[in-house]
Design goal:
Layout lengths: L2 E4 L9 E7 L6 E2 L4 E6 L4 E5 L4 E6 L6 E3 L3 E6 L73 H10 L17 H9 L36 H16 L2 E9 L1 H13 L8 H15 L5 E3 L4 E3 L5 E3 L1 E3 L2 E3 L2 E2 L7 H16 L5 H4 L4 E5 L18 E5 L3 E7 L2 E15 L5 H16 L7
Parallel strand pairs: 12-16, 16-17
Antiparallel strand pairs: 1-8, 2-4, 2-7, 3-6, 4-5, 6-8, 9-19, 10-11, 12-15, 13-14, 17-19, 18-19
Helix pairs in contact: 1-2, 5-6, 5-8
Length: about 450
């Protein structure tokens, strides 16, 4: 019997995926290990490989389609198998069936399905230009679920603006098939349906827009951009933020950094951010209450410092995680950050490399930013915003002296981190930064 291919959950936060590119076309023979399709998720673009061999009978979801997890995207026919024209793939809804290393615990569908795995993610930029097609072309409309029609017939009806409820089906048991829609279309009638325009061709709103059409470029929002928008909006709406700032002297740290880099003879090159990450981890050991996550039933106080590092990439940002940071040397942390940041910019991070963080750091100091407030990254309970190092006039022992200073701002989820805990944490962090030898122990 036919084998259905479904959209799977390729990242922990993924609820839908965009078909970036089909590597095979209908009628192609599928060989195990070949790449079948590229799927753009909220984190990266993933290649999905063929496991079950056969013939690609039908592509249900065209390139650019935005498909909910668990929805059929293609049908594979086994050797010498005839697939009925009105064959309807089984929609699993909450049971995605493509297997990946990131979703190995997802139950398989009882129906025969295409076993596929996610290969190394491909870079994101190419897929940003692909054509969008409205999900209405591949998902059943809510008001006509009880009408018997093949998925292809429904898609054609919406594309042609035909009210499918007004069609008399000629397929088995009165089911509406492709030929019925084509016949209605040739008669040149609309049958009361609403016109359908693919998303990519739908014009931008003209009334509310205060700009002339030739004054801007309309850049389509990528899956990553939409995910960032959704998660940060949810964070600001649902997480009660409060903010604490502290100034730290950087002279000793800068001197120690210069000495270590000079003595390394090129073996490594430590950045200010490397010291900050290690100091953040040490301070979380000192004040474990700041290393916590909120749920409706429990507060999770984490035993280890898994530090999420905000990395800017084309089209957005991602937060690879340096795990067990409190146990690693500063050189090991430095090397790992460089490796993770490189993989992030190439779109090659694995899900386990950007999930599971307990505390985040966002550093804009290299851009000359003195101070800013970052948005908490749930389920983490706090995020540290790191400003740049600059010379400032400060009072010391009754004298005005010039010191290298940095401003740190802690954003906290007040459900799990109280003000006193946040203050204790910042003072512990200040101690480690101003006495940087402590991060080497």
């Amino acid at each position: 019997m036919p084998i259905d291919v479904f959209m799977t959950q390729l990242s922990p936060t993924m609820t839908e995926g965009k078909i970036a590119r089909w590597l095979k076309k209908e009628g192609d023979e599928l060989v195990s290990g070949e790449v079948l399709v590229e799927i753009e998720t909220d984190k990266a673009t993933m290649e999905v490989e063929v496991i079950e061999e056969g013939t690609l009978h039908k592509i249900i979801a065209p390139e650019g389609s935005l498909i909910p997890v668990g929805t059929a995207i293609a049908v594979i026919a086994e050797d010498d198998e005839e697939v009925p024209e009105d064959y309807i793939p089984e929609t699993t809804g909450e049971e995605p069936v493509l297997e990946t290393t990131a979703t190995a615990d997802i139950p398989a569908s009882p129906a025969p399905v295409a076993q596929a795995i996610a290969a190394t993610p491909a870079p994101d930029p190419v897929t940003a230009q692909t054509i969008k097609v409205d999900m209405a072309a591949v998902v059943l409309a809510a008001n006509d679920k009880r009408i018997k029609a093949s998925p292809l017939a429904r898609r054609l009806a919406k594309q042609k603006g035909i009210n499918i409820a007004a069609i008399t089906g000629t397929g088995p048991k009165g089911r509406i098939v492709k030929a019925d829609i084509e016949k209605a279309s040739k008669r040149g009638i609309n049958l009361g349906g609403q016109s359908f325009t693919p998303t990519a061709l739908r014009p931008l709103p003209t009334g509310p827009m205060p700009y002339h059409a030739d004054e801007y470029d309309a850049i389509e929002n990528s899956m990553m951009r939409k995910a960032i928008s959704r998660r940060l909006t949810e964070s600001k709406q649902q997480v009660p933020h409060f903010y604490l700032s502290i100034d730290v002297q950087m002279d000793r740290l800068m001197d120690l950094r210069a000495q270590l880099n000079e003595s390394a003879d090129g073996a490594f090159k430590l950045s200010v951010n490397d010291f900050v990450v290690k100091a953040v981890a040490k301070a979380l050991v000192d004040v474990p209450a700041a290393n916590a996550s909120w749920t409706d039933t429990h507060t999770f106080q984490h035993k280890h410092a898994h530090i999420s590092i905000a990395v800017a990439i084309e089209g957005g940002l991602i937060t690879p995680v340096v795990r067990f940071s409190e146990q690693k040397s500063i050189v090991a942390i430095s090397n790992e950050i460089k490796e993770l940041a490189g993989k992030a910019r190439e779109g090659a991070l694995k899900p386990e490399e950007y999930t599971g963080g307990t505390f985040s750091i966002s550093n804009l100091g290299m851009y000359g930013i003195k101070q800013f407030q970052a948005i908490v990254n749930p389920p983490e309970g706090a995020i540290l915003a790191v400003g740049g190092t600059e010379e400032r006039a400060v009072a010391e022992n009754g004298q005005v002296v010039v010191k290298k200073m940095m401003t740190l701002t802690l954003s906290c989820d007040h459900r799990v981190v109280d003000g006193t805990v946040g203050a204790e944490y910042l003072n512990a962090l200040k101690k480690h930064i101003e006495c940087p030898a402590s991060v080497l122990i």
